[in-house]
Design a protein that fits this description.
Blueprint: E1 6-12, H1 15-31, E2 36-42, H2 45-48, H3 54-57, H4 65-72, E3 78-82, E4 94-99, E5 107-110, E6 125-127, H5 131-140, E7 145-147, H6 153-161, E8 167-171, H7 172-177, E9 186-188, E10 202-207, H8 211-218, H9 223-238, E11 247-254, E12 257-265, E13 272-280, H10 284-308
Helix pairs in contact: 9-10
């Protein structure tokens, strides 16, 4: 960074992404009163292509590429992401300088007529573009008609309100951050329903060689959140997970120990494979690997092979 008094944050232009980046900017200004923080909004390929499932066009990494190019070209110093959209392996010189304290990690059932997923009538239309959500939906309610739903939070809610769907599934954190928490009719919580890896956490990415930038951002790192998401991401990495495979993971810290539950599913059949384990809080990656191996031994390898063959 050429000037340590100014920090430029690259961000997607969706309302939720802008909220998250403004939130990070406010925290940075509070932590560093002399720091000037500017937003660098941009539209990514993942935002532009909304008529096809993410799994068909290259995965969630499409939300990062333009932001990374801006950092490489010196137009931005860091980028703010929903951590669940960040690939397990970052390309080139990039790393995660900070992971903020996690918000509500769970999925939200949103409907204008029904109070819960189980209350939906037979054959109801439910919208979700997430293969992870689709797999768990299929397992719990095989009678439902599950349809793809892309776009930002506001777009999805408009389609629900227009009657295109009887219900939709979204992340609780996104709704709450946009002041739409009252749209949540039911929180789908673990262990019955497992969220996406790192759901609810915001991450700040920058170049690994930008020491001054990393130092400014590091004050926002939340240790216990990073521990939990490192376990989840290590599991996902071992499974070679991406948004083309329905993988879920959720870690919690309690009594000095770290617990992780993992899930691999099939969105077409609703078949789910689950595994969980508890380990030391100072070895989140080891726990993630152990749960991944347990999932593979329980039959997840067969499901994963099915997806890799597609």
């Amino acid at each position: 960074m050429t000037n340590t008094t100014t920090l430029r944050l690259a961000t997607r232009e969706s309302p939720l992404a802008l909220w998250q980046t403004e939130h990070v900017a406010a925290l940075l200004r509070a932590a560093h009163p002399q720091l000037r923080v500017e937003l660098v909004p941009m539209t990514t390929r993942g935002d532009r292509i909304i008529d096809r499932p993410l799994s068909d066009i290259g995965g969630k990494g499409l939300f990062l590429k333009e932001l990374e190019v801006a950092m490489q070209e010196g137009r931005a110093d860091a980028a703010v992401h929903s951590l669940k959209d960040v690939p397990m392996e970052l390309d080139g010189p990039f790393g995660l300088a900070a992971v903020l304290e996690r918000a509500d990690p769970f999925d939200a059932f949103v409907s204008n007529r029904w109070d819960s997923l189980d209350a939906l009538p037979h054959g109801a239309r439910v919208g979700s573009s997430s293969l992870r959500r689709q797999a768990q939906l299929r397992a719990r309610r095989p009678d439902l008609l599950i349809e793809d739903l892309r776009g930002n939070v506001g777009t999805r809610l408009k389609k629900l309100d227009a009657g295109d769907y009887h219900a939709i599934l979204l992340a609780c954190a996104g709704l709450q951050r946009l002041g739409l928490g009252d749209r949540i009719r039911q929180r789908l919580i673990a262990p019955d329903w497992v969220p996406a890896v790192a759901q609810g956490a915001i991450a700040i990415e920058c170049r690994d060689d930008a020491a001054a930038t990393r130092a400014l951002l590091g004050v926002l790192d939340h240790a216990s959140t990073r521990t939990c998401v490192e376990a989840e991401r290590a599991m996902n990495r071992r499974l070679h997970g991406s948004c083309t495979v329905p993988i879920a993971g959720y870690a919690t810290l309690a009594d000095g120990g770290l617990s992780l539950q993992g899930l691999v599913g099939d969105a077409a059949s609703g078949e789910l494979v689950r595994a969980d384990a508890t380990g030391a809080a100072d070895d989140p990656r080891g726990l993630g690997l152990r749960v991944a191996v347990n999932l593979l031994a329980a039959g997840a390898d067969r499901l994963l092979a099915r997806f890799s063959a597609h």
